[in-house]
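Hello everyone,

My group is preparing for a crystallization screen and wants a predicted model to guide construct design. The compound we'll soak is zinc ion. Before spending weeks at the bench, it would help to have a computed complex in hand. I've included the protein sequence and the ligand's SMILES below. Output in structure-token form would be ideal because that's what our pipeline reads.
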Amino acid sequence: MEVQTDKKIINFIKKRIKDSHNIVAVLGIEMLVESGGCDLDSNDENYRVEEEYGFCPEDILSTSFFNAKVEKFYRFYKNEILGMQQHSTAAYDSLLKLQTQGKLSAVICQNFHGVPQSINLRNVIDLNGNININQCPHCDKDFDIQYLINSKGIPQCDHCKAAIRPGIRLIGERVDSELMTKAAEVCDAADVLLILGKNMYNDRLEYSSAPERKQLKVLFSKNDFERNGKVDFIIRDDICEFLPLIID
Ligand SMILES: [Zn+2]
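Reply:
Good plan to model first. Here are the tokens for the complex, ready for your pipeline.
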């Protein structure tokens, strides 16, 4: 399929990637959608979820909702979050290529399905948690995703019967400050920053580098109204079609 981005821009980014030794990729919603997931933040999904569950996704995925209505939370969580099928794409293959070439220094993941780890990308920073790592809030016992899926109703710790805390960051919780610092550091050091889609948490995470450093920032966004003076290019094409063009 033809991409809409100008050939000159493609060649420019391609050359910068070729010359780069330190690339950081930030994975957002568009990566999740291209991998078979859905954007729960879109109008259609908001409407559908509200019809089906009585609340919008943003309400359900919050700490206050989890604490007050844990049964409803888990009905949604199991169906919509754990039930979301994810597969690797050509975009992930391109990132693996960069890793093999020793150019990819870190992957900052804002989605929480654990796709980067499942295809052996290394140095993954899961800013918003990971659905595969679940814990009992009382005894800290770990539970895998299968335990949650297999449990009827509210998944409970088999030791102390407390409702298991899902491994994702709920809305209303802060990003782990250690992870945030690490993310900021790797972004700062990168000479190319690939921002692959928007952040579902809507909280603005700034990945700025010191102004005196020359860093190429490329943002992928399907939103035609997206304006961002802090990036060099905004690419509207599919990430899985575009990355193979700029990564040899
Ligand atoms: Zn426990």
